[in-house]
Amino acid sequence: xxxxxxxxxxxxxxxxxxxxxxxxxxxxxxxxxxxxxxxxxxxxxxxxxxxxxxxxxxxxxxxxxxxxxxxxxxxxxxxxxxxxxxxxxxxxxxxxxxxxxxxxxxxxxxxxxxxxxxxxxxxxxxxxxxxxxxxxxxxxxxxxxxxxxxxxxxxxxxxxxxxxxxxxxxxxxxxxxxxxxxxxxxxxxxxxxxxxxxxxxxxxxxxxx
Length: 209
Ligand SMILES: C[S@@+](CC[C@H](N)C(=O)[O-])C[C@H]1O[C@@H](n2cnc3c(N)ncnc32)[C@H](O)[C@@H]1O
What we know:
Elements: H1 4-10, H2 14-23, H3 32-43, E1 50-54, H4 62-67, E2 71-76, H5 79-88, E3 93-96, E4 112-118, H6 126-137, E5 140-153, H7 156-165, E6 177-178, H8 179-189, E7 190-196, E8 201-208
Parallel strand pairs: 1-2, 1-4, 2-3, 4-5, 5-6
Antiparallel strand pairs: 5-8, 7-8
The structure holds S-adenosylmethionine.
């Protein structure tokens, strides 16, 4: 699993690496464009929404939303990713923050129409993900939605199949979403849907109960 320095070093080459993995339909980024496009289209149903992006990276998704007039806030622990994203979205409120430390106090009173996160929350263990997501629900506006696009599998067996097929690149230190394990917990405090997109990617959509 990459730390902050690892992401700083990766920042300039990030988009190219993702493209290669996505185009060859391989773990980890198979389905990346469809995942981001689906989130983009969902947010575009509403005009001028307030969006929080957790782990926005080079802002592939949020910069498009920014161009369409949505208001963007974001958290990311990589100063190099922030530099790239801020150049694309000069008025976005982007904060350098490590989400393994929870949620920053200065964001706690904000309300968002959409809270999105793509390919970032697998850096939290399931024990960390659950309270983090629970907390995000409190930041949603009345009709707000959390949309998470990430490396995700319907079952542990499917994850294991992907691990075997991708053994040369597999990162054993990351914590991928497994629907059959997470859904029973998430549905206790949210309305939750899972949409598989590729053999290793999917979307979770959550609203308040
Ligand atoms: C794989 S990139 C995804 C970037 C972008 N969301 C996308 O879909 O292309 C993961 C991003 O999450 C950030 N990240 C990873 N762990 C983090 C942490 N603990 N706290 C804050 N940001 C983190 C990285 O700096 C990086 O920008």
